[in-house]
Amino acid sequence: MVMISLKRAPPPHFITLRDLTGPQIGSLVQSALQFKHMCKVEGKTAHPDLPLKGQTLAIMFSKRSTRTRVATETAMAYLGGQGLFLSSQDIQLGVNESLRDTSQVVSSMCAGIMARVGAHREIEELAHYSSVPVINALSDTFHPTQILADLMTMHEVAVAERCPPGTLPHEVNFRDTLQGQRVAWVGDANNIVWEMMMAFPKLGVDLAVATPKGYDTPAVLRETAAGFAREHRTQVAYTQHPEEAIRDSHFIVTDTWVSMGQEAEKTKRLQDFKGYQITHDLINRSQPHKDWKFMHCLPRKQEEVDDAVFYSPQSLVFPEAENRKWTILAVLNALLVNKRY
């Protein structure tokens, strides 16, 4: 008697860049560069094959979003599918219905789930019970789609500065441009810098993290990043002095000091982060690389970075924001079309 198992292999999920190898991350960025070129240079405003025609992506967000929502819906449309936006007011995400039940129900009707949650355990639980790929659009620990966009932006800058005029970013190997780059993080220890720690060391990028006393990165994440750094001969350093982090850096990055849910701590945080605002004065006395650039995931507040830097020629914030679309498009194509990274 022949026994046939109906149990399927678990679908590929995109939870954090910690789980991907350097080549896998590079493959996603290279795909994003190709999609951007196809659309903006070749004029292909939709994928010629519309591989996701008739398919729906559930976009379940328990927190507000601008860039991630717009990027996800337009990326899904590019592939021929549609996004179904479900806010916390639309569905009972972990309120009157368990995450397990929500995951099983939604994944039975959709091709994938893009979820923006609070606690990281929520995205892990959704993925555990889902029969379709789950993509982390943000949790309180990791934000992988943002860091993919940062890496893509860094690559484009490096191509423009180092390669012969007319060289197109998608024609240059992504990993070749990042070797030896140094990134300075100045600000709160949050999901953005923690995701950087999971990715940058594997790609030849050194990272210097400046946070005030009492805002340290959890030891388990430091240990993981240190392991990646040892394996790939890169550096991840920590300091309480912004000047030390910025020195010799090619990219200076910050983010909000008061994340959603931390509003009650605002007065204390503004005092604790005194001296961390990114200004030309701070940058000049810190002696970064001569061709330094500034990045921010947005939305931005004045206390984190002043207008002179935010709107300066060195600022990459708007190309960085646009690249959210192309990297999310690459992730959707990898998981929903190719079924792999």
Automatic annotation (TrEMBL):
Q: Repressor among the record's keywords?
A: no
The Aspartate/ornithine carbamoyltransferase carbamoyl-P binding domain covers 13-156
- GO MF annotation, one: amino acid binding
- Aspartate/ornithine carbamoyltransferase Asp/Orn-binding domain location is 179-334
Q: What is its pathway? A: Amino-acid biosynthesis; L-arginine biosynthesis; L-arginine from L-ornithine and carbamoyl phosphate: step 1/3
At the top of the EC hierarchy, this enzyme's class is transferase
Cite the entry's keywords alphabetically: Amino-acid biosynthesis, Arginine biosynthesis, Transferase
A Gene Ontology term for the protein's cellular component: mitochondrion
Residue ranges annotated as transmembrane are: none
Q: Which SUPFAM superfamilies did the record assign?
A: Aspartate/ornithine carbamoyltransferase
What is the protein's name according to its record?
A: ornithine carbamoyltransferase
